[in-house]
Amino acid sequence: MSYKADIVDRAIVEFLIQDGRMSCTEIARRIGHVSERSVRYRIDRMVKGGVIRVGAVVSPKAIGFPVTADVFIDVEPGRIMEVAHKLMEFECVSYVACSTGETDVSLQIVARNNDELYGFVTQVIARYPGSGKPRRCWCP
């Protein structure tokens, strides 16, 4: 069953993107023509329908991981999913994505310092069976 979002649902989502803790009362006030109860009902319906998720997003810098890097690697044919699933097991990996194009797998790594980042890239990623040497590493 697909969810049919209307203009009010989209407005609610936009306000929650701006501030995930915004109250239903405040959202209703900003929209102008809906009640707080209607906003609360719509949010519950979107959560239950899998349209939105409510949760906390941790800032790596705030918990001691000030270094962030996007790493792109080539993987042997037929082993992309194996390598991607293995990389997801490491706590320092914040996301893994498989792609088509220049590289096979991209991931984001958080680290306490550049030495820790370098060690993970050269000692873990580059040595995992099936993965080639990282093609690019970008630190914003």
Structural features, described:
- There is one protein chain.
- This protein has five helices and four strands; from the N terminus they run αααβαββαβ.
- The protein is an alpha+beta fold and 140 residues long.
- Strands 2-3-1-4 form a four-stranded antiparallel β-sheet.
- The longest helix is centred in the N-terminal third of the chain and has 13 residues.
- The mean pLDDT is 90.
Short summary:
With about 140 residues, the chain is α+β, with helices and mostly antiparallel strands.
Descriptive tags:
single chain; 140 residues; alpha+beta; four-stranded antiparallel β-sheet; 5 helices; 4 strands; 21% strand; elongated
Note the topology.
Layout: H1 7-18, H2 24-31, H3 36-48, E1 67-75, H4 80-87, E2 93-98, E3 105-111, H5 114-125, E4 131-138
Helix pairs in contact: 2-3
